[in-house]
Specification:
- Strands 1-2 form a two-stranded antiparallel sheet.
- Helix content is about 75%, strand content about 5%.
- α2 runs parallel beside α7 (about 150-160).
- The chain has helices at about 1-20, 25-50, 55-75, 75-100, 105-125, 125-145, 150-160, 180-200, 200-205, and strands at about 170-175, 175-180.
- It contains 9 helices and 2 strands.
């Protein structure tokens, strides 16, 4: 799993610092990660029901899930952005907004759903802004180690999302010092991505790389 962790770490840094600038390519990477993760988690249930499985079945589920996720994200950028925007919005509603005024109960989940719907709306209508936010958020989760390969394995084995649910405001021990690794990477990535647009680097990139221009002008 060490190779997988390295891959997730690198993908995380790419999303953190170059997410929206890469437009459909970042959306495709997001789609691949989500699809591959879903295939990895669901493989035992799917292939177990069919009487097949093993390493080959797991690999097929990961590759097919990742390919489908990437393809759908590439074809429908705004719709594809709305889906992770809903997830990120719901996550923020559950772990950041609700603790301010409630400790649990039905209200907590109501706020989660409302925050998710707001996130999806922003993702669908303001693609560029949402893509910056979502890629910085998801990328920071992988780059900071808040979500690792072992967590995905725990989700698969327990068939529960709990292992990948982390506190965005939590600190991470780095060289014996508690640092808000996720928060720092998220903010740094967001500022970096905004700077890439403000300084005109994305416009120059769009002139030579097909597909980059699909996000320009959206969310101005």
């Amino acid at each position: 799993m060490e190779l997988v962790d390295v891959g997730l770490l690198l993908a995380g840094f790419v999303l953190v610092f170059f997410g929206a600038a890469l437009s459909v390519y970042a959306a495709a990477l997001l789609g691949f990660l989500i699809g591959a993760g879903g295939g990895y988690v669901l493989a035992p249930q799917l292939f177990g029901a069919l009487g097949t499985g093993g390493v080959v079945g797991l690999a097929v589920a990961v590759v097919v899930g990742g390919a489908l996720g990437a393809a759908l994200a590439y074809v429908a950028l705004s719709v594809a952005t709305a889906i992770p925007s809903f997830v990120v919005g719901a996550y923020i509603g559950l772990y950041v907004i609700t603790p301010i005024f409630t400790e649990g109960g039905l209200v907590r989940y109501l706020v989660m759903i409302v925050a998710g719907v707001v996130g999806a709306f922003v993702g669908f209508t303001l693609t560029k802004f949402a893509l910056m936010f979502v890629t910085a958020f998801v990328g920071a989760a992988f780059a900071s180690g808040s979500i690792a390969a072992a967590d995905l394995t725990a989700v698969r084995d327990g068939f529960s999302p709990d292992p990948i649910l982390f506190d965005p405001l939590a600190t991470t021990p780095v060289a014996g010092v508690e640092l808000p690794a996720f928060g720092a990477l998220f903010v740094l990535g967001l500022l970096t991505q905004i700077g890439l647009f403000r300084l005109g680097w994305v416009t120059r990139l769009a002139a030579v790389v097909p597909g980059i221009g699909r996000v320009l002008g959206n969310g101005e």
